[in-house]
Amino acid sequence: MTAHFMTEATNAMNENEISELMNLWPALLHDLINTDYYLDLPDVSKWVVKSLQYNVLNGRKRRALTLIHAYKTLIPQEKLTNENIRLIRILGWCMELLQGFLLIVDDIQDKSQIRRNQPCWYLFDDIGLAAINDGFIIENTLYQILQLYFKEKEYYIDLVDLFHEYILRTTIGQCLDLLSTNFGKTANLDLFTMDRYSSIIKNKTAYYAFVLPVKLAMCAANMKDPELHRQVVTLLLDIGHFYQIQDDYLDCYGDTKIIGKNSTDIQEGKCTWLIVSALQRVTPEQRKILEECYGSQDLEKVRRVKNLYNDLDLPNVYSIYEKETYNLLMAHIQRLPSNLPQKLFFDLLGKIYHRKN
C-alpha cells in the first residue's frame, strides 16, 4: 500500500521532469554538434544526431530521474536555483547517454532483437557491427558534456572519476556474465550459483543504475562525508539487487509489450535468478531437462524450461521473495542516519516495487 501510494504520488512529478528534460535536449544536442569535433564533417554530425535520437531519447529515463530527484532532496532549498536545476538535468542526460551506450553493446553481445519496442540499433537499417563505433561515440559524448558544462565546477573531476569507475565496474560485470554463458555458446550450469549471480548483478546493474546517479547527486550537492557515501552504497546495492531479480522474473513472466523487449534469457542461457533458484530445487531428472533445454533457441525447449519453472513453483517463490525483501529494505531505510533523507530512498524503492516493466 505504501509503495503504491509513493508511486502514484511521484507520477506527476516524473512526467513533468521528463518534459523538462526533453525541452533541454535540442539545445544540448546543438551544443554537442557545434564543436570542433564535427567541424566540416556534416555526414558524421548527421549520423551522430541520428544515433543519439534513436538510442538515447526513447528510454524511460529512470536513471536521470533518480539523479534529479536525489539532488533535489539532498540540496539545501536555498541552493535549488534554476541554474543548478538546469545543470543537474544536463547531468541526468549523461546518465541516459551512459545507458544508451551500454545497451547498444549489450544487445550486440547478446544478439538481442528488440529494445524499447524497436529493433536494436545494430539491426536497424542493416547497421551491423558498425554500431559498436556509435556506442563509443555516445560514451565519449558523455565526457564531452561534462567538459562543456561542468569544467569550472569544483566537483568536475569527481564526476569524471565516478563515470570512469562505474563504467569499468559495469563492463567487468558484463565480462563475468559472458564468461558464465561461454560467450553465448553453451551455458555451464555448474557455474550458476547464487554467489556468482550476485556478483554479476552487483557489478553489471546495481552500481551504475542505482549507486552512480545518487553518488553523482551527492557530489553536486557537496556531500563529501565518506561514511554517508558508504551507507548509501550499501543500501543502493541491495535495492539494485532487488531490481535485477525483478528484471529476471519479468523477462520470463512479464508482458513483452510492456517491458519493451523480447523475453530471451532462457534462449541466451543467461545466469538469472530463475535458473539459479531452479537449480537449487531440481531433482536429478529435472536437472537433465535444464541441461538439455536451457540456452536453446528451440521454442519447444524454451517451453519445457518455463514449465519446469512453474512445476517448481518459482512464481510463488518470487512473490514471497519480493514481499520479504521489500520489508527488509524498508527497515534498512528507517535505520539511516538523520542527515540522509529517508524519503529519497522510500521513493526509489516505491518506484520499483510491484513494477511491470
Order of helix and strand elements from N to C terminus: HHHHEEHHHHHHHHHH
Range of helix content: over 70%
Task: Write out the CATH superfamily name of the largest domain.
Answer: Farnesyl Diphosphate Synthase
CATH architecture call of the largest domain? Orthogonal Bundle
CATH topology of the largest domain: Farnesyl Diphosphate Synthase
Sheet with the most strands, sense and barrel status: 2 strands, antiparallel
Strands ordered across the widest β-sheet: 1-2
The CATH class name of the largest domain reads: Mainly Alpha
Q: Work out the strand percent.
A: under 5%
- Gyration radius, rounded: 21 Å
Tally the beta strands. 2
Shape: globular
Q: Quickly give the structural class.
A: mainly alpha
The N- and C-terminal alpha carbons lie at a distance of 19 Å
Quote the average pLDDT: 93
Provide a count of the helices. 14
In total, the number of domains comes to 2
Contiguous runs where pLDDT drops below 50 for at least 5 residues: 1-6
Keywords: Isoprene biosynthesis, Magnesium, Metal-binding, Transferase
GO molecular function: (2E,6E)-farnesyl diphosphate synthase activity; dimethylallyltranstransferase activity; metal ion binding
Pathway: Pheromone biosynthesis
Cofactor: Mg(2+)
